[in-house]
TrEMBL record:
<feature type="domain" description="Serpin">
    <location>
        <begin position="3"/>
        <end position="176"/>
    </location>
</feature>
<protein>
    <recommendedName>
        <fullName>Serpin domain-containing protein</fullName>
    </recommendedName>
</protein>
<dbReference type="InterPro" id="IPR000215">
    <property type="entry name" value="Serpin_fam"/>
</dbReference>
<comment type="similarity">
    <text>Belongs to the serpin family.</text>
</comment>
<dbReference type="InterPro" id="IPR023796">
    <property type="entry name" value="Serpin_dom"/>
</dbReference>
<dbReference type="GO" id="GO:0004867">
    <property type="term" value="F:serine-type endopeptidase inhibitor activity"/>
</dbReference>
<dbReference type="InterPro" id="IPR036186">
    <property type="entry name" value="Serpin_sf"/>
</dbReference>
<dbReference type="Pfam" id="PF00079">
    <property type="entry name" value="Serpin"/>
</dbReference>
<dbReference type="InterPro" id="IPR042185">
    <property type="entry name" value="Serpin_sf_2"/>
</dbReference>
<dbReference type="InterPro" id="IPR042178">
    <property type="entry name" value="Serpin_sf_1"/>
</dbReference>
<dbReference type="GO" id="GO:0005615">
    <property type="term" value="C:extracellular space"/>
</dbReference>
């Protein structure tokens, strides 16, 4: 929310003192309701304008506690600003065994293409079961699904077909921004 809009809203709210509307005014009813059983989430009021570093520390502390210390620095200092109006934070730590282990002897050094166009050699896990992991082919990318042992969960890998296709893939997957 822009500072000008915030100032305008504040001025209009001031016109409503003593519950009398005497000039152009605005009334607000803002709340967030969250189904805890679905999201296990909390809504909290914070002071981004004056305590942005404290908010970052608080978010990091919450993530560290909820992930049993496995994710320590979720938000780096300086990533939020005083004009931040809303923050959604989700952290996920996932560790498990694959349903079908990769054979270490089938690991091969292969080309990996960096965003700057450079190509480096890195070890790739390979499998004879490659086609069984293919979830689907889509316009410009494919999705691989590798199930975890003893569960209904799988890890999904979104892989662009083009060596420089990651930015296009990310753009396809993005929700519209909340900025206006």
């Amino acid at each position: 929310m822009s500072l000008q809009f915030t100032s305008m809203v504040s001025n209009l709210k001031d016109n409503n003192k003593n519950n009398r509307i005497t000039s152009p005014s605005i009334l607000f009813a803002n709340s967030v309701w969250i189904d805890r059983s679905s999201y296990n989430a909390k809504a909290k009021e914070v002071d981004f304008a004056n305590k942005v570093d404290q908010v970052i520390d608080e978010v990091n502390s919450c993530v560290k506690n909820e992930t049993k210390g496995l994710i320590k620095n979720f938000l780096p200092l300086g990533c939020l600003y005083g004009d931040t109006a809303l923050l959604f934070a989700n952290a996920l730590y996932c560790k498990g065994q694959w349903d079908q282990k990769f054979d270490k002897t089938r690991t091969r050094n292969m080309n990996f293409h960096l965003l700057d166009g450079e190509t480096v050699q890195v070890p790739f896990m390979t499998s004879k079961r490659g086609s069984r992991h293919l979830y689907g082919l889509f316009g410009g990318y494919k999705i691989l699904s590798i199930p975890y042992q003893g569960s209904d969960f799988s890890m999904y890998f979104f892989l662009p077909n083009e060596t420089d296709g990651l930015p296009k893939l990310v753009k396809k997957l993005k929700y519209p921004t909340l900025d206006s």
